[in-house]
Structure formats: C-alpha cells, structure tokens
Amino acid sequence: MRRIILWLSVALALALVTLGVRRARATSDVCKPPNVIDPHVCDFDYFYGSPPRQIPQGWTAFVLSGDLTFKQAIDTYWGAPSLCMWSDGGTFKAGIYTQVHVTPGAGYRATVGWAGPNAPETFGRRLGLDPTGGTDPNAPTVIWGPIHWGPGKMFNLPDFNIDVKSRAIGDTMTVFFLVDHNRSTGNNLIFVDAIALYPDESAPPLATSTPVPPTATPRPTRTPTPTPTATFTPSPTPSATPTATATAAATATPTFTPSPSPTATDTPEPTMTPLPTPTPGRGAGRGGFLPTIGVALIGGGILLAVAGTSMFGSPMK
Q1: d(Cα 112, Cα 39) in Å, to the nearest integer?
Q2: Is there a smaller number of Cβ atoms within 10 Å at the N or the C end of the chain?
Q3: In a domain, 130, yes or no
Q4: In the 8-state DSSP scheme, what is residue 44?
Q5: Whole-model pTM above 0.70?
C-alpha cells in the first residue's frame, strides 16, 4: 500500500512539473502576434547563467551604476518564470536589452506586461528603443519613453503604460528595459516579465523622432583654392628692387648770392695821339684819311671798336 502511495506521489509531482513547464512555455497574450519578438524571448521562458547574472534567453544585462543580482523567479501574472532584479541594501541603475529584426522605415511600439516591485516608490521603470539597432543604453540614438515611479505592476494597459514608439532606420531595432533603484529600504526587488514589440504606424516620422545614426566622419577633402583671375593692376612706375645708384651727396640747393656789382673803375681812355698833320706838299692827294679809335669797358669785358671814316674834301683850287 505504501508503495502505491509513493508511486502516486511521484506521478503527481511529475504531472505538476509537466504542467508547470507547459504553462511556462505557453505564449502570454502580451507576446502573441502582432508582437515581433520571439514569443519565448518575450515571455522569458528560458534562462541562461546563474545568479548574480542569470538572464532570460535572448536578452543581455547591463549595469550603469551600483550592483545587483539578476535571477530567475516565479512572480508574474503571465506565468512563470520571470526575472527578479534584487539588491539587499544597495542601489542600482540597470536593465536588459534585446535586438529584433524589423522592417526599415516601419513604426514600432514597445510595451512591458509585468514590472512589479516590493517598494514601488524606490523603483523607476522605463522602456527605450534604439532605431539604429545599437546596444549602448547611453547612446544618443536611444529614444526613451516615460519613467514611472510608484504603484503599478501591469504596464500594457491602454490608460496605464510606459510604452515608447519609434520608426526603424535599419533592419534591426533594440528594445531596452531600464530599472532605476535610487534609494534602498533594505531587501528590495522587482519582478519583470513579458516585454513585447508591436508594429505601430502612429510612430512619429524619423525626421522628428530619432537622431540621425552615427556615420563615419568623412575625411576632409581638399577644396581647390580658386585661381584668381588675372586682373591688370598697373604697377607703380618701376619700383624694382632699388639698385644702388650713385646718389649725389645731398648738396644744399644753391642759394643765389648776388655777386657784388663791379665797381666801375675809371680806366684812362687812351690818349689820342694826333697824327702828324699832313702838310700840303708834293704828291698830296685829293683828300685825307682820319682814323678814329674808341675803347669801352663794359662789366669785365673789353670791346674794341675801330671805325674808319673817309672824308672826302672837295678838290683843291
């Protein structure tokens, strides 16, 4: 009888485990189409690693500050397992991300089905999208949705959510879930489950919703300096490099000093020596010849003028 009871107990336990596994692998409403994240990744159905870094399959953990433990848990509305992010007395800012294949240019919306903390006022919860497919939560290309502090566990409701929207730039989009635990009250933890991504054409245009993805900085290209058009500019009168020319030593400009006017000096005029008066006699001609000589001194020059005058007399009677 005891053996029968033992076998029944084992069978019941196996049945419960099987049901639990099936329940864990059943797709939650949040992770059903049109969600584009793999349902098992969306539902956190499988984990890899071990605490303090036990992470849902398909997701990667990141820690921006502080320290914490990531581990598998069962607290969730959508069916176990779930992710527990826990710290005993410490603070942290950390989360997880996954990359999803998408259609370039299409709009998408991220949502989370479960994010329940034990000290709601000390936990900020937030979703982010990087339309370029980057994996750095600090990158300027990440678009963050609103952050929620305080009570709340289910965040996929029409009037209560922290959804974020964007349009894809490439064929990969990254979904981030961030927890900001900036104040500790002791043993603090949050349970997370069912993070989905839906097509949503109400997402704003890329021009206004996302920064331009980083591109390789182009190498500077040499811009040809425009050759100036030859414009004739009259050169100043040859100013070739001055050749040492014999420059006359600066001579004072001669100032005209009038020479003293020569004082007239009476030069005795030559005394005329009378020629012998011809005595009429034999052989005398019909007339006589009288030379006259005049000398004049002008300035310092001498002008000698000799004039001959012929005098003719009438024939002697």
Answers
A1: 13
A2: C
A3: yes
A4: T
A5: no
